[in-house]
Each structure stands twice: as C-alpha cells, then as structure tokens.
Write a structure and sequence with these properties.
about 130 residues, alpha+beta, 5 strands, elongated
C-alpha cells in the first residue's frame, strides 16, 4: 500500500463526445475518466477494483473539446485500512487546430490542466 502510486491514462476526445457549441465536452466526461484511472489504482494496490465512493474539491479549470488528447492521472495521497485518498488531474496534451485544416492538430508545449479533484476509493475488507 503505497502513498505516491501514480497511474496515467490517455484518451482522444471524439467529436461524438461533444455536447455543446464550440465542440465542448461536458465535465462528467472527465469524471468518468477519473473513475477509470481510480479503478486501476485500486487494482494495482489491492487486487480489487474498489469503489470510488466520493469526490471532493472538483474544479473545472478549462474547457475540454472534441479533438483533444487528454491525459488523466491519479496519485495516491493517503492510505487507510480500507480507504485511499487520491488526487486526480486531467490535462489536455494535444488539441485540434482547425484553423490549419480539418484534421490538423497541435501537441501543446505546456499541457493545459482542465480538471482537478480529490477522491476517496474504498476497497473491501480482506477475506478471512
């Protein structure tokens, strides 16, 4: 059970994921990705998918758009008997660049932090 364990996933945000004008994606999309990366943290730490029981301090800092490549990271910050505190961060690392062409995109020199949150993951008690 390691404080500091970090897991990262990357995902391309499709145009089908956009719900709003300007190809904006709703915030729940990123929270869903936090659930996925939190599940892998639980598997690596406890051999169980666990349950993401709560979020606190969710902050939507910048928009997520169709055509983005988003990187989502979960880092364990505290470990209890059955709970783990996890810091989540989502960053856009590539972004569509339609001004240069329909399929143009740019690797961002500096990733843009789009969402941060703290979460509590709970795992079942040990068998036996």
């Amino acid at each position: 059970m390691t404080v500091g364990l970090t897991v990262t996933h990357r995902r391309y945000v499709t145009y089908a994921d956009a719900h709003y004008g300007g190809n904006l994606v709703n915030g729940a999309y990123v929270l869903d990705l936090f659930g996925d990366v939190g599940t892998e943290v639980s598997i690596r730490m406890d051999g169980d998918e666990g349950l993401l029981a709560a979020y606190s301090d969710v902050q939507f800092r910048a928009p997520v758009r169709a055509g983005d490549v988003i990187e989502v990271t979960a880092t364990v910050t505290a470990v209890g008997r059955r709970s783990r505190q996890v810091a989540f961060e989502a960053r856009v690392v590539c972004r569509a660049d339609p001004a240069r062409g329909d399929s143009a995109a740019t690797v961002l020199a500096e990733p843009v932090v789009v969402v941060t949150a703290t979460g509590t993951v709970v795992v079942p008690p040990p068998a036996g």
